[in-house]
Amino acid sequence: MSKPLNCTTVFATLLATLSLSSCATNPDGKKIFNVVDSKQLSAMGLSAFDEMKSKGKVSRDARLQGYVSCITNKLIAELPNDFSRQDWEVVVFDDDAPNAFALPGGKVGVHSGLLSVAQTEDQLAAVIGHELSHVTYQHGGQRVSTQLALEAAGQVAQMYVGSKGEQRNPMLEAAIGVGGQVGVLLPFSRKHETEADRAGQVLMARAGYNPGEAATLWQNMMAQSNGAPPQWLSTHPNSEKRMERLSAQAPELQALAETARSQGKGQACPR
């Protein structure tokens, strides 16, 4: 069991690490507040994903697995080099909830129920692109960093220290994107969601997918849930505004998608 930290120790540690945050940047080159070791986040992602596979129902539908992996791999190929060169694992889970997630460490999970909402390849690419962007923009690390800064002398800081050992940490797992899978909800901020929307839409266009289908996907989400966002979207930005923003951004990205298709990208994945 780890020893509890006093306030002085916690704040001294934070002051030392905050000076390193100026070195952290997102794919747009903007400085971000992230003082958490990327290796630690990756280890958490790997551990959480392994547990989900052991406890969840991994789909045995080879065709569905191949379809989802094909789409995901085309998107991964367009990620920044540090991420595109990483070994990624894609798993489809037999779960009716329309959900998908990506975790640090190169893990992607897609619920089979998402296929009832993401009715086209482009729409599924929109969801997966959004989730991959949370990872590439280090949103999980930023959330953990914010929690540490706000509650340095309290529970979150102590849990962070404890997570250095073998004990699982549901709060920090939620921060990197596991969320409902471990029964803890720590939502991304509206800024992070908007950033992932934009980056995911650019990513799908670079892979040759129709960026206009991103807005259609969210329309399908709302229609399936009778106008109310499904549980996993309950903390996301206003859905109508989100669809308006995605629709407005699509025309400027169409040229990017057309260029990608002229290069042979965007070929249909077998389903």
Describe the structure.
With 271 residues, the protein is mostly helical. 54% of the residues lie in helices and 5% in strands. The chain is built from 11 helices and 3 strands; from the N terminus they run H-H-H-H-E-E-E-H-H-H-H-H-H-H. It has helices spanning 7-18, 38-55, 62-76, 81-84, 121-136, 139-150, 155-162, 170-176, 190-206, 213-224, 239-262, and strands at 89-93, 100-103, 107-111. A 3-stranded mixed β-sheet has the order 1-3-2, sandwiched between helices. Strand 2 (100-103) and strand 3 form a beta hairpin. The longest helix has 24 residues, at 239-262. The radius of gyration is 19 Å and the shape is globular. The termini are far apart.
